[in-house]
Amino acid sequence: MSTFKHLSALLLPLLTIVLVLQACSPKPVFRMSPVADETSWLSGREYVVSDHDSVMVVLAYYRHMGDLFYYDIEIVNFSDEPLRVSPEQFYYTAYTGDPLLEGTQAHNRVAVNPEEKLLEHDLTASKVDAERRTTAGLDAAFLTLSVVGDMVALSNDASVEEMSWRMHERTNMVIEMEMRDERFRRSLDNMAEARNIWELDMLRKTDLQPDEYVRGMVAFPLRESAQYYDLIFTVNGFDHRFRYEQFRFIP
Description:
Layout: H1 2-23, E1 29-34, E2 40-42, E3 45-52, E4 55-65, E5 68-77, E6 83-85, E7 90-95, E8 106-110, H2 114-155, H3 160-201, E9 206-208, E10 213-221, E11 228-235, E12 238-249
């Protein structure tokens, strides 16, 4: 019995260390490559093209970031009629293995809607700004109470040591207020920068006139277990399909 207790005492710290090391292990790095006979390279990106009924779609993998992966896409309208391009009509089918094998699991997900992301960023920024204003109001109230306390202490003939302590405490309070406000401002700036990406860099709903084109980024939710993706971009009622293989690298 004592031997069992001794082993348990040794195994528990070892298990804790193993769990901590696993929690600190680096995340895998992903890359994608098109499964296509004809591709072209430009500035390190491999482009593939789908051309149908006077509409051309040019696509290149950009990168994985967080729980999303991004593609650079260009859509050209060579027809005589206007057409609408909308990211809500883009989606993928992810395969855990060879798509040609019957037992391979498949999962469908739609592209991220930039308008929903913009709304999400605006709601978050509004909450953070409201929290900042609330905190600033409370800080001002506490600072006022501190000044009132100093005046009361002076009227009661407070000692030099007490007044020095009060001055020190109020100085620390002002410094903490400024640091907190600076953190809020940095947080808002970071959110504004992230919002700009979805507003300016991402492909958003666009009506293309004849001989016009639109270019931007399209984001999809990452599926780490996927080995292949069929990316489908529905434009003017036609599905432009691109197959990509996903590679997983462990640091």
